[in-house]
Design a protein that fits this description.
5 helices
Length: 136
């Protein structure tokens, strides 16, 4: 579990790089989305911003996240970290595949948001329980 914060930082940095590249893609390939219909333009932009959000979430967990010394809480935190770590991957897939969806369905983006929500809630609960177990 010692290496998970480093993994969060690596995934976060790769995600920020993907965010910058996706911005360049929208600018250079799609003329900054200027002549694109509203639906696809909204999907491109939201995927782009979600990718940044998920990447920054990973960077923060990598920099400040601490694992509990209690084994049960540490295992839960590991699962929570895994949920957050897959977010940028799912959001890159969403940007590449779902941004041109005609029906506006975005299963990859939806899953990434749900996993981040659950991961952060479990990390928060474990951190609170870990602090509650310490003596002041």
């Amino acid at each position: 579990m010692k290496h998970i914060p480093t993994l969060h930082i690596v995934v976060g940095l790769l995600g920020v790089t993907a965010f910058l590249l996706s911005g360049q893609y929208m600018d250079l390939v799609h003329e900054h989305l200027a002549n694109m219909p509203d639906g696809p333009r909204m999907l491109y932009r939201s995927s782009h911003i979600y990718l940044l959000w998920s990447s920054l979430l990973n960077l923060v967990l990598g920099c400040y996240g601490r694992f509990s010394e209690r084994r049960t809480l540490s295992v839960i935190q590991g699962a929570a970290s895994l949920a957050v770590l897959v977010g940028p991957v799912l959001l890159v897939a969403s940007f590449l595949r779902e941004s041109q969806a005609v029906d506006l369905e975005r299963p990859n983006a939806r899953l990434a948001v749900y996993l981040a929500f659950a991961g952060v809630l479990f990390h928060t609960a474990c951190a609170d329980l870990s602090r509650a177990g310490r003596k002041p």
